[in-house]
Specification:
There is one protein chain. The chain has four domains: about 50 residues, no CATH class; about 90 residues, no CATH class; about 220 residues, no CATH class; about 40 residues, no CATH class. About 50% of the residues lie in helices and about 0% in strands. It is built from 19 helices and two strands. A two-stranded antiparallel ribbon has the order 1-2. Strand 1 and strand 2 form a beta hairpin. The protein is globular and about 80 Å long. The two termini are about 50 Å apart. About 35% of the residues are buried. This is DUF2786 domain-containing protein.
Amino acid sequence: MDALDRLYDSLDARLRPEDVAVLVREALPSLTRRQRSVINEVAAHASRWHGFTGMSTDYARPVGAARQVAATRVVFGVDTCPVDADDPVSVLEFASFVGAEINWDPDRADFLADRLNREARAAAGIELSKRQYNRRFRMLRRLSAKASRLERVRELRRLTLIASAGFVGAIDRDRFRADADAACFIAYYTARRKLRREFSLTGRVNPFDQVAEALLARCRARGDTDWAMIALACPAWEVLRHLRPDQLGELLGRWSAVTRSVAGLLAGLWRSSEIDKATMVVRTGVDSSSWNALAGAYNAARNGWIACLHAAGVPDLLDHAWPGKVMRVMAADLAFWHHEAGGGLHPDTSVWSRLPLPWEVLDGTAVCTRADVEAACREHGVDPERSGWTAPRAHAAIARFRPTPELVHGVSVSDPVWAMALRHARVFSGKPVRTGVFGGQDAAG
């Protein structure tokens, strides 16, 4: 694989920006002296700690149903039916196929309520003992449940990538390779967006740094740049203004669909959780990981949607139904740190608390106009446009690159080997610290 192929594969992974910079330097032999100097400055950090890191270079991938499929084959004695154990649809089709032997209905899989009794089994022509019938029913129920979990994890991973990298999953390899300058910008910019959050009092780092600026400048200098491909990852005015009306309309539709879809998922999670809307401090039992992943996807999609409306010159279409942003939940220890450091809740949290829930605005059960959002922002000292409440979020300045820190649950650690030991001991995780991982002594000591 050449550098462009490895950059393409990085779109679905989580490489450090400095590692991506090394591949960019290899993929673009025509870099000017100035551009090469800027990229070398970042790429030089890839060899830090001899390139070793204890942090995963990928997002968590779902575990397929191979084990459950194999067990089902044994129980039903089926070897010929093909199945993709990593595809939930294929797994359910396999379950329906083998389940025909016992008239199994995936919509009626409750073990206590939906099993056939002796008379019903006889009427259906099922010549199995009660024990063998129950065994098959249980197996299919487990296989169906596994397919459902697999689908949820796959969807959550897809939305996590949308939050961090937009619609890069819609870019095929040939299109990516056809425009090396655009490809390198997309790979590096999304790597910067994928940086993990640090446990700090400051906000997220600006992903647009000196390398991103140098690579985008190469795209500006050419007349045949694939701006529509770049817009899939970076829906900023600088990019969107190059799109044709049909391209802009298609992208607008993509962002709108994701915004509404994720809002529906958030609504379901909100109803099943006990989250204090006024503080958004996480409570025991709240699935904070799923909430924050969905909130990130929603806010990214909402920002892309609003950016496309502005680029099309029709932002007033949402004036009478303007959905707000969604706040991430905050761990109690981070909230306590904010308080002890003399800070308080982020002003955006107060705005969020003041407004109707975004999914209720989107489905028409609540009213929230643009004027309502602006009034809530003024009430809490927030600039509605600069903060992204009523305008696309934009980074005015070019950030200065900082080497990717080795993080343990959001805490920066100076050495990756020490970081791995801390991670194994569950330090900073909020869980009981494991003993015996530091030479037999309790880590708390």
